[in-house]
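The pair is listed for reference:
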Amino acid sequence: MDPIPVTIRQATEHDLPAVRLAFADWGYRGNARATDTILMAEHDSELVGLVRLTPEHGVVVLRGLSIPPKYQMRGVGRALMQRALASFEGIDFYCLPLAPLKDFFAYGGFVACPADAAPPFLADRLEQYRHGGGNFILMRRPGA
């Protein structure tokens, strides 16, 4: 499929109800908080993607990168990731994607790493996710 042009902006507190609804509709079970940095991708005034960035214990965790099915494989996720990474230059990023998404996150400079190489809170979170039945992996992108 061809890429689509998107406009990416940071969500405001006013956007949070729509963000939470979209996350739920798209299958993300996390809770978007006012303290998170949430980036929204829009195409022709339609919300077509979200990513949630949470500073935790001196690192940034990229969470909830969500694109509705009809816009997947159209460049929306890559655009959101590029903008997210540029928003926090020089800071270590982590993410806990499903294993089949490893190559997608590698595009953004993330590399798989063992749980014992991550901050303890992320190793614990990874264990919880895996206990829930998902094939999750831990990935890190070092700050420049």
Remarks:
- The longest helix spans residues 76-87.
- DSSP finds four helices and seven strands in the chain.
